Amino acid sequence: xxxxxxxxxSRFALLTQHGKATxxxxxxxRLGGQLVLATGFDTDTLGSFTGERERTLSAADAAQTxxxxxxxxxxxxxxxxSEGSYxxxxxxGLLPWxxxxxxxxxxxxxxxxxxxxxxPQPVYRQQQFTDLHDALDWARAxxxxxxxxxxxxxxxAVFDKTVSDEATLRSRLIEALAHGPVGxxxxxxxxxxxxxxxxxxxxxxxxxxxxxxxCPGCGLPGYGPVRLQAGAICSGCGRPTATARAEVWACAGCxxxxxxxxxxxVDPSRCEFCNP
Length: 276
Fold this sequence. Notes:
By secondary structure, this protein is of the alpha/beta class. It contains 5 helices and 13 strands. It is 24% helix and 28% strand. A 5-stranded mixed sheet has the order 2-1-3-4-5. A 3-stranded antiparallel sheet has the order 6-8-7, covered by helices on one side. A 3-stranded antiparallel sheet has the order 9-11-12, with no helix packed on it.
């Protein structure tokens, strides 16, 4: 076995308050490691989905911060962290979209390896209501109570992130509607969102795949895609487009990189000049 590979039986410490161990466990098993939980730090201080604490770090930086803290709190060589972001899809801005970034921090080498999963996120929804029955119907359609809900917003007369059954939801809605329209939002904390937990699991699996990929330059684990390279040629006008022509793979250790071609050309319908 190469000395650069992750040693069998390594401890991977995960810093989470939202039950993400179930999403990371299969990936750690693939790596022949042992998953342990790191405690002693409130991850919500790095920002919260519900806005009580503002996010000041990018998702990648937040995931890396959690992974690094996990090693410091646990004494494990490897730390794991994740962060998600949700908003409009990057193409047309009409569909809800989720991105989950996960990170493995190697405290011995001071090296971070990231991976991600992304795609449509049908449960990322929020809406205002003035009618109790409309609100309850919307909640059921979203998947409540398996999919968690947040009633109201921080600073309003009613704000509740703990509702877990319909009777309590009805009570909170009646209370909130007495003050005016009430907002409902999908609770995107991992332990309250099965769809998000599944996406974290996909990202963790991608991370395991990357950690099993050695850099052809130095042999360190973690060689994989870091960005897309635009420039696929329009088959109509012959000009380069914004569509990716290649994936750039790189090593976080030595910086070795290469391009993996994706496509040489695209249809004119995807060209910014032929189809502005």
